[in-house]
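Title: Comparing notes on inverse folding

I've been comparing how different people in this forum approach sequence design from structure. To keep things fair, I'm posting one structure and asking everyone to reply with a full sequence. Here's the target:
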């Protein structure tokens, strides 16, 4: 079996990290399979793909196409969409030649840009699997495009039941959609292991004594809730709390990230200087999570899945979750996590206060999180589940 994975990003966002775990799991479960990663960008994703045992090929996007996102207003979306179409046509031709050379049994596209480009580039009846990581309803333009090309896709796989339900609305009830719930590497994301010095990373003076470290671990995506987090920290107003924003800019899609200077300004405005550290991008996320006492997930919109939630649980850390979308489906509030409504600053502050004031609760909730992760989020499971799906759609081609 030969599988080609298509990635538009060369960075390590959630969808790319999940794909790397899937490739590792497949390597172990089906060692003889030929796994080829085609990425539109050079970068850490492609390097890691090689490390986990895939063959890698960079087929670079032209600059304009790389910067085009699919979120944002309708008019801007149409303009950008038009640009994307032009840039994409040439790219699709290039990609088709590459695919013809590889001649895969299955094409696995990871993310909307590649879902569409995969539909345009596939040739000779190569079965295409769309791996859906996000809600199509928040991207009406993209939903329309996917609907237009759905006949090119043999199967869509959603990372959560919430994403599958949403995709059913966009693609039509009869469209084949399966759910393969995300997983994490439970050996990497484990309670024991290396830690980092968050203060040193953030370039701030080391705090000693009674400190409870609370961190938002996220990309700088606009919907990750950085502002909600900082406002909640100000509302908690507890001298024991040190807050960390763990993450840095990784996307070059125009306007999709929060601007760091604005967050610094907000920290000053809220009068919480000295209580917040910005670590920047951390490659070894597990070690950063282990260095925290409380992990916060604060997306202001429903989260399709929320890898960091599963990662925090797997590390045995209590996590406070903005509970909507797929994120709400993977936690048992009060048992292995605390929940609040997206955007609810006071709700998050209540959660932080509760955990900061109760070390036993932190320990109990962390242990319950590890138990849940062992039961639900083992990334080896995603390897097995995808293997079955690949075999199913590849068999259809051979018939
Ligand atoms: C996307 C989603 C996120 C999910 C990740 C991996 O980044 O927004 O919720 O965890 O993909 O599937």
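Reply #1:
Here's my take.
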């Amino acid at each position: 079996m030969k599988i080609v994975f298509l990635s538009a990003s060369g960075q390590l966002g959630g969808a790319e990290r999940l794909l790397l775990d899937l490739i590792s799991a497949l390597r172990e479960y089906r060692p003889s399979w030929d796994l080829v990663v085609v990425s539109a960008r050079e970068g850490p994703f492609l390097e890691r793909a090689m490390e986990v045992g895939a063959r890698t090929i960079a087929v670079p996007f032209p600059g304009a196409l790389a910067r085009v996102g699919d979120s944002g207003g309708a008019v801007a979306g149409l303009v950008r969409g038009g640009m994307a179409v032009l840039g994409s046509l040439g790219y699709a031709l290039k990609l088709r030649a590459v695919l013809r050379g590889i001649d895969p049994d299955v094409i696995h596209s990871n993310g909307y840009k590649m879902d569409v480009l995969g539909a345009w580039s596939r040739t000779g009846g190569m079965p295409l699997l769309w791996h859906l990581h996000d809600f199509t309803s928040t991207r009406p333009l993209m939903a329309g495009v996917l609907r237009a090309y759905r006949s090119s896709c043999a199967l869509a796989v959603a990372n959560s039941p919430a994403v599958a339900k949403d995709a059913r609305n966009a693609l039509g009830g009869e469209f084949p959609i399966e759910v393969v719930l995300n997983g994490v590497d439970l050996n990497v994301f484990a309670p024991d292991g290396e830690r980092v010095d968050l203060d040193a990373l953030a370039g701030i003076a080391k705090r000693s004594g009674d400190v409870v470290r609370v961190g938002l671990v996220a990309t700088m995506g606009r919907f990750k809730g950085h502002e909600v987090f900082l406002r909640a920290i100000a509302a908690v107003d507890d001298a024991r709390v040190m807050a960390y924003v763990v993450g840095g800019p990784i996307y070059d899609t125009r306007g999709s990230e929060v601007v760091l200077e604005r967050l610094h300004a907000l920290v000053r405005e809220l009068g919480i200087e000295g209580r917040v550290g910005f670590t920047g991008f951390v490659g070894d996320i597990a070690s950063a999570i282990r260095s925290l006492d409380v992990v916060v997930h604060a997306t202001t919109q429903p989260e399709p899945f929320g890898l960091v939630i599963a990662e925090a649980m797997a590390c045995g850390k209590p996590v406070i979750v903005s509970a909507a979308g797929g994120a709400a489906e993977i936690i048992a509030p009060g048992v292995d996590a605390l929940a609040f409504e997206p955007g609810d600053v006071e709700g998050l502050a209540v959660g932080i206060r509760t955990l900061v004031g109760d070390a036993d609760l932190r320990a109990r909730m962390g242990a319950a999180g590890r138990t849940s992760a062992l039961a639900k989020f083992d990334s080896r499971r995603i390897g097995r589940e995808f293997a079955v799906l690949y075999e199913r759609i590849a068999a259809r081609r051979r018939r």
